[in-house]
Amino acid sequence: MGGLVFLKRFFAMPGQVGSVIPSSRWLSRAMVKQLCPHPDEVLLELGPGTGVFTQALLDHGMPPEKLLLVELDPKFSELLRKRFPRVRVCEADVATLPEILRNEGVGPVRQMLSGLPFRSMPPALRHRIGEAVAKSLAGGGILAQFSYFPVPPLPPEVAEANGMHGKIAQFVTFNFPPAFIWKYHKNSSISGVAQA
Questions:
Q1: β-strand 43-46 against 164-172: which pairing, if any?
Q2: Is 18 a domain residue?
Q3: H/E/C letters for each residue in 66-111?
């Protein structure tokens, strides 16, 4: 069911959906391993699609009420609400992430997982969304982001301006296409701007 929805959305909105099929369970597990989910802290997932990373986070023991999913596509949002009724799903544009977090009563988060197809975005949009993501990550926080390319998914100038340093943490061959997991750390001396 989720795979069929994913395929349909890829052909309907190829710039927003990065592949013809959802990420594999191997990539999902590897992404979750990059983070240190804490049951008392909100963990933010960007572009959850059909929820394969969401399920991996729940399987890892993350309380559903501590997950916040931000998904632009209404079809995916509807599917996510049905699959995970106890998880908060916010149907919104990630480019407005600081405002989303304020509206949700959440400050900058320390744990963020993203399936956004940064490398498929037009440069201006990639920069705008990159800024919103970087400003919403708390000092000392971690962003796990996957990409099909061995080049930084976040614009380097955005990462540098916001005190974020990223590197390839893992290459996952058991995925279609194979994927690079980028792990970004934000300097602890730099705070986010999304105040609750």
A1: unpaired
A2: yes
A3: HEEEEECCHHHHHHHHHHCCCCEEEECCHHHHHHHHHHCCCCCEEE
The model's pTM is: 0.86
Q: Tell whether 126 is covered by a domain.
A: yes
Cα 19–chain centre separation: 15
Q: Order of strands across the sheet with 67-71?
A: 88-91, 67-71, 43-46, 109-114, 137-147, 179-186, 164-172
If phi over 0 gives left and psi between -120 and 50 gives alpha, with beta otherwise, what is residue 100?
alpha
Q: Is 133 helix (H, G, I), strand (E, B) or coil?
A: helix
Taking the C-alpha atoms of residue 30 and residue 50, their distance in angstroms, rounded to an integer, is 17
Q: Is residue 195 part of a domain?
A: no
Q: How many domains does the chain have?
A: 1
* pLDDT tens-place string over residues 139-168: 999 999 999 999 999 999 999 999 999 999
